[in-house]
Write the structure tokens for this entry.
Amino acid sequence: MDPRRLARFPFLKEASGFLRDRGITLSDLLQEAAYRRARARGLDRVLVALEKGDRAPLEEPPLRTDAEVLTEVLAYPVARMLVSTIADPYLIRRYALTEAVWAQMRLSIEDAPFVASLAGELGLDLLGGNGGFQIHFTDFLKHTNSMREKEWKLNNQVVDGGRVRLSRERALRVLRNAVQGKIESELPLPVNDEVLEAFRRDTQQVKTILASRKERFKAEELGKVSITRFPPCMYNLLASIQNHENVPHSGRFAIVTFLHHIGLSNEEIFKVFGDVPDFAADVTRYQIEHITGAIGATEYSTPECATMKSYGLCPGGDLLCHQPGMKHPLTYYRRKPRWIMSSAATSRPLAGSP
Ligand code: SF4
């Protein structure tokens, strides 16, 4: 493969082989002056992802020389190591989302065979031809389950012989989800002391910006409830919504029931959802009212931890989550003030805690 393609899609398996063939060791990458530019580019990737997310502009670096190509291919593992030194679920998701959005933009100028082969590497059965693509319906379902707009429902697709027909633009949107899922599922990587030491200053810089983003987020008006008491699962869902990320239906259901049961009014819950771009206001209001029992006969309960885990909505929990009897996000919310006061709370929380 043309190495410039590896620089543009550095998550491909061949990129690892490309680096292996050059005999670059981890210590070289972390320490050698020759790779300073690659380390700086890796840091840039993470900072832009953190600050801009899916609105990060695609700034294509020059790829004229071997050195420029190598720098870009190396910047990707650097960024992944840096993200892994912090291992914050919000940072991981935001970084994966940004890389995926960049990949989608880059794929827009690639030919159909390359798009199909990249999809194959991601485990998708995608065929290209006649100006569009066809994807196996199981892959379509798997990679669009977080997209709730009608246009992504299976029953609104043209399905031919078990394959969903997609325009190029829509096929790339599905691939974006697949890239994001792949990157997210691989992080955090285990990092050793040498990596931690080499990235000490960069890690601190990213952590400071991350903390300030979370602080801004905390400061946002949520009525009478305290966001510092939120369990990691609900905190992450709220952060995703407020950062315009796609949240699966199960996640929106969970956060609406949670906000309702801790005392937010439907209007306050609506404000939390209000600026999600792909979420029509009247549908949002209807769903909130339906879930909270304002219309219909059922006031739904907040899912317990076991259900959150089965939905893939539990980021693993923090120290309080792992205390005896902790089986429900609402129990966490009720216990948090006492927990903060207790001596146990002086222990450092695991990643994911607000
Ligand atoms: S253990 Fe329960 S409360 Fe804690 S993050 Fe997971 S689902 Fe949420």
The first helix runs from residue 3 to 8.
